[in-house]
Each structure stands twice: as structure tokens, then as C-alpha cells.
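explain this.
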Amino acid sequence: MNSLKAVPVFLLLSSFLSFSSPRTVHAQTQERIQIDSSSSSTPFPHFWEQTFGSGRAILSLRQSYRDDLDTVKQATDFKSIRFHGIFDDEVGLYDPDRRAINFAQTAGQKGAASDDNSAYNFTYIDQIYDGLLAHHVEPYVELSFMPYKMSSNPNARHPFWYHPNVAPPKSYDDWDTMISAFALHLIARYGIDEVAKWKFEVWNEPNLDFWGGSPRQATYWELYDHTARALKAVSPRLQVGGPATAQAAWVGDFLAHIKQANVPADFVSTHVYANDTAKDVLHTDEDVPRDQMVYRAVKMVHEEIEHSPYPHMPLIFSEYNASYANEPNVTDSPFMGPWLANTIRLCDGLTESMDYWSFSDVFEEQGIVRTPFYGGYGLIATDGIPKPALNVFRALHKLGTRRIALDSDSALATRTAAGNLVIALWDYAPPYGTGPHYTMPSGPAAPAKDFTLTLKHVTPNANVQIWRIDDNHGNVLKAFNAMGRPPGDLTPQQVARLKAAGAMAPAEHAHLTGGKLHITVPAHGLAVLVIAK
């Protein structure tokens, strides 16, 4: 995750969060859309819900983490999870001093365990990966960070609350041996057919302060080369890639490097956030709006790959979100509905997977959470309280697997395998401010959008289910405001009330009239329509 996100602003928020009732909309925009349900369509894989990010590896042993994992799995049926820190000392994999101690203790003892003198301890790693698989989720294995006793600089501590070490290894022989032992252990425990499905990504954002090598790019190439070759030496079926950079950086350079050095790669990965700047991502002086930045970055990298020596290399954006900062008006709010739907509309066909950061606010990069709504990255706030973003993912999961082309920047039309028509409609507007407090505008809200749908090749009076997320539907912040925005820890009774308030709003029921439907969507609102075959 981008280290720019490491500002502990939520520590100051508990007494400042606010939420006001939606204001009267004084004008509405009109949009007329025609959809032929039998027209040609293109594949629409749900690339936005295949993988999610999460807090660091050790957090996956917590029950709260696993409870949230189950909730998001049920909502999206996602396949894999990515987190930092599988090699961090708190996971306990690497300790060369253990070898000498245990060997001395077991020398001459009959029946001593064969690995008692190993430098590696897989106890927590097994519990971490066993736990994911037991919850029907595969690991997306980010290979980070540096074990303290392998580091070339033990003082190279990242400022995250848990202070991972980010230096290169003092010995690449030791690093290679550890990578080989790690891969061999996973294959022995889970089988090559299972582990061959996982992605192994070398490090995290080496173009920022997550990598202490100097110069950063050249020393990262060295790390990547050693790691990729060590993994492929264990099994050529293991999938390895990088460079996992922030701000969509280095992909072209990475592909040129692996070509020149003849180093294996099965995919490329990079990251972007919607409030990254054009200067950092696109290397221009444009003012790119929040609803366009992720698309612009994805398109740029997609084109870099097309013009590289590997034009068909799979592309994974292994981190993205609407904000890298703590912005309650963004990640905690219904704003996420239109933003995510529009991002999906634009990025379809340009990337194999976009991995939302993150699935849960069981998360400690900035310290221990003190209030549930501080602009965290997760779909679920602390205490298992669902945010509007979780409901957004629930609704968009209903979209079909074939996309029907539309001339609209506020709609997606899809068809399911069963023949149902599923349409997403939204009214995008910028967030209600970008500061650390949840606020509503002082003036009139942005206008609502009035859609008139004309549907062809459907039953003229077909039943319609309408799932909404907006200021008044599936929005826990409204209840939090009514509760007086209690600071700090919530009581069990308050948690129960907020969980109920944040649940997905029941579907509205309507029907077509002569193949037509009129529907109004408020600013920051998303509506997903399921029209029976």
C-alpha cells in the first residue's frame, strides 16, 4: 500500500464526524437509454471482485478478520486475498539462531524432529494459509518484507505502525534458500495443483519507501531476478510477477528488463488510487478528476504492455481504491457506488484483475482504530459494521457475465447466464469534501438523475427488482449521525443498531410498462435493476 496513506488522521476524528440529512434536490438531469436485450454482447468477467487486499498477514489469525472474510466472500464470491508481511518477524518464518540452539538441545537425542535445527518455522504461515483455504479463499502471495536477521540494514524500518524492515537482504544466497524452502513447504503441504493457482508477487511498491535499496529500480531488479528464478527452480508451474509499484510506475521498464535479463514473469502488477496526481501517474500537468484517474492509469499501463516485448502479458492492478488518504466522505460513504460502477465501466477489457484495497478495517498500518468511520479502506468498519461500499459490491455482484454496449456514461447493461437483464444506473458527483470529517454540502446537493429506459426483446410488463445504495439506502452513516456520532469504543447495543442500519436495503419491486421504466437516482446514488427473463 502506498506509504502516502500512512497519515494517522483517524486518531483525531472521533469527535468531528458529522452527517446531515440529504437536502432537497432542486433540479434533475434527464437521460434516455434504449437497451436491446437480444443484441450482441461481449464477455464481462467480474474483474473487480476476484481479489481483495487486507491488513498484514498476522491479522488473518484474528476471528474478526475471518468473520469479515466470510461476509465479503458471501457478498462477492471473491477468489483470493493479498496482504503484506508474510516474511515479517511477527510471523516467525526465519530465525537462523534457532538452528544452533535447537541443534545443541537435540544433539545426541534419539527421535529428535528432523527439522529441529532448521532456520525456518512455518507454524504461523501454516495457520495463516490453512485459515484462508478453510474459508474458501486462496492466497495471493506478496513476498515481503525482509526478516530482521536477514536484512542488510536492521534499522531500515518503515513508518507503518508495525514497522516492517524494507532493506535488501545482506546475502542473496540466504534469500534464495528461504524462497526455495518457502515454496517447497507450500507444495508439500497443499500440493502443486493448488499452489500453482496462486500468484507470487515480488515485494510491494519498491518505487516508494517500502524498498530501501539504492538505486531503487536497479536493486529491485536484483531482488526480482533472484526471487523469480528461485521459485521457478522449485516448480515452473509457480506463477511469479511484479513490480507491484505504486502510481502505475515501472511496468514498461520491468518488461524491458526481464526481456534483456531473460528472467521469468507470468504477470505484471502495479497500483493506483483515484486521488493520485497526474504528475505522479501520467507524468503530465493535467487535473484528472477522481472518477477518471484509475481508468487513465489502467489504460496507460495496458498500452505499455501492448507495445512491450510481451504484448499479451496479464495485467493485475493489485491495489486500487478511490482514495489513498483517510477520507470519510469517500471510502465510508455512498459516493463509492457511482465511483466504483463508473470505474468498472471504463476499465472493462483492460486488465485481468483489479484488487480493491481493502476488504476490512481489521487493519493497523496507521495504528489501532479508535472510531469506526475514519475513512478506512475496508468494506467493513470495525466491529463488523457494514459500510455502503459493501452494499455496493453486493449490488454490482448481481451484474451478468455478458455486457451489452450502451451509449451512456452512467449505466451498465448486462445479461446473466439465465437470460435475465441486469442494469446498473448511477449519478456520479464529486465527494462532499475531501477532509477528515464526514460532511454534507452547505448548499444544494447535486441534482438527481431521471432515467427513462426503453427495453426491447423483454416481456413488456416484466417484473423488476431495484437494489439501491445512496444517502437513504444501505448507508450506516445516517444512523451513526442520529446516534450522536459517539466517539471511541461503541457499546454492544450501538454496534447491533449500526449493523442493522448498514445492511443492504430490501429490494424495491416494480414492473415495466410497455417495455419502459422511469427511475430516479439521487446524487451519489447507485441502483441495480434485475429484470426477469
